[in-house]
């Protein structure tokens, strides 16, 4: 059984890493705030004091980090420690350019796979995420299957690219639902009537996510993801969506709340 190192125990990372407990894989975990790793240690995982320590003896290294800056800092630490034969599975949402930059830094015999996920914390906790995997997935597909359904997207970087597309669609739809509810308010349409109409229409999925409870997609990360998309192509609508989420994230009470809270902010400020 491969030795696995899981780096990054935020909302998504913690739910995902939990799927590896009890699988028979020796699991080492690391998080910038070490206290978040304590429940995993209590259930048999080993706590690493640093990313380098976590990666040193691992066969599979999984990173699930907040943004390109956090990933770059961790990469600085782990790249010298990755041994020939090791596989690095990068599951953060960082875009394909970052993946290509990481690949250029790796030593001989180290394999990099980009495998960001589709789904929120509820699906992560249930092991039902969609795994968008680019590169030579076969050697670690059985590991990724613990997190959900693996879709092979093509060459290295293709998973990261598809994730930007998926998130742009989700965040664009959620922002549109928020604006549509602002229109309902202006027209005096009953809240329940408006939400039911949206749920039964073509924006049904976006409406469900806009009003979801018990899940978490950090609003500040929505800003990051939308920004990555608008830097990849000229997207005037998504630029407007980005501005919506930026204004919402400027509120300290919303910045690290779920995007459903941003919907309320967008609705009130439209």
UniProtKB/TrEMBL annotation:
Enzyme category, top tier: oxidoreductase
InterPro entries linked to this entry: 6-PGluconate_DH-like_C_sf, 6PGD_dom2, 6PGDH_NADP-bd, HIBADH-related, HIBADH-related_NP60_sf, NAD(P)-bd_dom_sf
All residue ranges annotated as the 6-phosphogluconate dehydrogenase NADP-binding domain in the record: 3-150
Pfam families, per database record: NAD_binding_2
Superkingdom assignment: Bacteria
Active site: 163
Membrane spanning stretches: none
Gene3D superfamilies to which the protein is assigned, alphabetical: N-(1-d-carboxylethyl)-l-norvaline Dehydrogenase, domain 2 (1.10.1040.10), NAD(P)-binding Rossmann-like Domain (3.40.50.720)
E.C. number(s) listed in UniProt: 1.1.-.-
GO MF annotations, alphabetized: NADP binding; oxidoreductase activity
Keywords for the protein's UniProt record, in alphabetical order: Oxidoreductase
Family matches, as PANTHER family: CYTOKINE-LIKE NUCLEAR FACTOR N-PAC, OXIDOREDUCTASE GLYR1-RELATED
Family statement: Belongs to the HIBADH-related family.
Name of the featured protein: NAD(P)-dependent oxidoreductase
Organism: Streptomyces sp. R41
């Amino acid at each position: 059984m491969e030795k696995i190192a899981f780096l990054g125990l935020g909302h998504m990372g913690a739910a995902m890493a939990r799927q590896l407990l009890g699988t028979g894989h020796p699991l080492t975990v690391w998080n910038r705030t070490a206290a978040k790793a304590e429940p995993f240690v209590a259930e048999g995982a080993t706590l690493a004091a640093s990313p380098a320590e976590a990666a040193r003896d691992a066969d599979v290294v999984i990173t699930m980090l907040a943004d390109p800056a956090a990933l770059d800092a961790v990469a600085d630490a782990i790249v010298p420690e990755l041994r020939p034969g090791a596989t690095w599975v990068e599951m953060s949402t960082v875009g394909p350019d970052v993946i290509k930059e990481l690949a250029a830094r790796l030593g001989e015999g180290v394999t990099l796979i980009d495998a960001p996920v589709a789904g929120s914390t509820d699906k992560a906790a249930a092991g039902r995420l969609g795994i968008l995997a680019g590169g030579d997935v076969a050697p670690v597909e059985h590991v990724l299957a613990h997190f959900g359904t693996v879709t092979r997207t093509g060459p290295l970087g293709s998973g990261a690219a598809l994730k930007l597309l998926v998130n742009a669609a989700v965040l664009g739809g959620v922002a549109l639902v928020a604006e549509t509810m602002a229109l309902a308010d202006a027209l005096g349409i009953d809240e329940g009537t408006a939400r039911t109409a949206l749920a039964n229409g073509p924006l049904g999925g976006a409406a469900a996510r806009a009003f979801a409870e018990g899940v978490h997609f950090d609003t500040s990360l929505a800003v990051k993801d939308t920004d990555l998309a608008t830097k990849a192509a000229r997207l005037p609508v998504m630029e407007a969506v980005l501005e919506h989420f930026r204004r919402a994230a400027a509120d300290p009470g919303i910045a690290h709340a779920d995007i459903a809270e941003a919907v309320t902010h967008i609705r009130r400020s439209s």
